[in-house]
Amino acid sequence: MRVRDTRHEVNSDVVLGEDWVTPETSDADVRRKRERRGYLTLNRSPLARKIITFNLIGLLILVGGVFYLNPFRDSLTEQRVNGLHSEAGLIADVFEVQIPRNAPVSLAGGDGIDPQSTLDNLTLSHGVEVFVYDTSGKKVAHRSGPALDLETPDGSTVITDFLNSIWEGTSRLLTPGAPDVPGADGERLAEALLEGVEAGNAPMATGVDANGETLFAVASPILQGERIVGIVAAASAAGEVDYLVRKEREQVLQMFVIAILVSIGLSLVLASTIANPLSDLAAAAEIGRDRNARKMAPGRVRIPDLTGRPDEIGRLSGALRGMVAALYDRIDANEQFAADVAHEIKNPLASLRSAVGTMRVAKREDQREKLLDVIDHDVRRLDRLVSDISNASRLDSELVKEDEEQFDLLHMLHNLTDYLGEDAKSKGVEFITDLPKQPIMVYGLEARLAQVFVNLITNAVSFCEEGDAVRVWVRKRENRVLVVFEDTGPGIPEQALTKIFNRFYSERPPGQFGDHSGLGLAISKQIVEAHGGVIWAENIRPTDADITSEPLGARFVVGLPV
């Protein structure tokens, strides 16, 4: 009898993935460990860092793409240039109204037209600078509209200013295109457009002043009929578009900063729901190989139960828990098997020891012959026992390694019953078969299932005497097939019905003692269950109403999926 070791009962329920409390660990240490959980997620979890990094990379690419495409500048530039064209054209129309239709006109010479007075009487837009030239390119009038307030955009912050400066520096490197007139002012840009207007175009020029601010200029002709008598040029204020672009960019950058904070927060939440459980599962899986950890948690390894999660981590937790449970079941089974083997081997060894000891003092030859028979019987019993134990111990691994195939169950049973039926008839036992005519295809290991059926048939024959009968019949029921083995022997004792499939259990007549190891039915059950089937035993009674009536024989049923 095995005595259960209870020295480590107190720690046997430690759940891996949580903080372990050992005699050397204080409550304060445990509390500090749990408080550092959020820090450990980012600092020690590569998965958490990858989640945050990839989320930020996607966000950076999105914002960088918006800035690279520069929709703000392109749209604002187009709007501002169109506005300047419209304003220059309106001013030119004012001058054209004052010009006589047929008389020669020179804006520089007067001719009844005062360009500067006309320009002064007009209301100009904020930030616009207007120049009027005659056909020789001489400036005859100049006026500037109300100044623009180009202060720092509202909502600007240190962070957005820093990001904006980084982007502007990068964009200069990535955008090699230069302005039409570098180091220019409004007048210089306007003069650069004169030749284009005389050529019949309505040109536009861009420039950058000494402070690096961008400005635009457009020109429109003053016509007398079809003849150009002057040119009106309008220039924007330096940095006007830059200011508007910067203002739009400030808003985008502020949203970018908010998006980064939200992305990091959501990434940490996502990491805590992924990285932490995976870390706990990894710690639980690694504990079995860590001898030092086993000293801390001497009880059984327990995987955190995350099966309530409807995702892959929940499935992984369930799979690991099932694997660990199966592993411990196998360990327990091996321990029980080893104990049973030791117990079964000790019986014939004790008998051998007794027989050998008795031979030393036996005087008569007939006593020596009887003791030699006992020794021979026990040696054969040990040999059979060791062979069966070896087969049983290798069965699990062999069932996994062998490839399952589809085969005709009835064809196999016909071959077995033909051979074993002749053997039963030679012992005076009637052998009856009732097998369907249509093939029944099953999927599995044909040789292993044949081993089960041979064992059940020979087992039934061994309990029969001359004049008894053994019957094998098969019935198919929807998605399963039942293979039944019946005999008219003494039946199975009621107390043995729940034990006959246990290892080394044998309920035999006195004359058959020692002839069987008690592993046959246990091996059969193992093979049938490996195929997803079931096996059970029962007594055949004259009526089910009276369970106390003497059995008419025994029945073994094997159910297999089809």
List keywords for this structure.
562 residues; alpha+beta; six-stranded mixed β-sheet; five-stranded mixed β-sheet; 15 helices; 15% strand; disordered N terminus
Provide a descriptive summary of the structure in words:
- The chain is an alpha+beta fold and 562 residues long.
- Helix content is 52%, strand content 15%.
- The protein contains 15 helices and 13 strands.
- The chain has helices spanning 27-35, 37-44, 46-69, 71-98, 115-120, 158-174, 186-192, 194-198, 240-286, 291-296, 312-361, 365-401, 409-426, 446-462, 520-530; strands spanning 129-134, 139-144, 181-182, 204-208, 214-224, 227-235, 405-408, 430-434, 441-444, 469-477, 480-487, 534-540, 553-561.
- The strands form 3 sheets. Strands 2-1-6-5-4-3 form a 6-stranded mixed beta sheet, sandwiched between helices. A 5-stranded mixed beta sheet has the order 8-10-11-13-12.
- Helix 6 crosses helix 9 (240-286), helix 13 runs parallel beside helix 14 (446-462) and helix 14 (446-462) runs antiparallel to helix 15 (520-530).
- Mean pLDDT is 76; it is low at 1-40.
Write the layout of secondary structure elements.
Elements: H1 27-35, H2 37-44, H3 46-69, H4 71-98, H5 115-120, E1 129-134, E2 139-144, H6 158-174, E3 181-182, H7 186-192, H8 194-198, E4 204-208, E5 214-224, E6 227-235, H9 240-286, H10 291-296, H11 312-361, H12 365-401, E7 405-408, H13 409-426, E8 430-434, E9 441-444, H14 446-462, E10 469-477, E11 480-487, H15 520-530, E12 534-540, E13 553-561
Parallel strand pairs: 3-4, 8-10
Antiparallel strand pairs: 1-2, 1-6, 4-5, 5-6, 7-9, 10-11, 11-13, 12-13
Helix pairs in contact: 2-3, 3-9, 4-9, 6-9, 11-12, 12-15, 13-14, 14-15
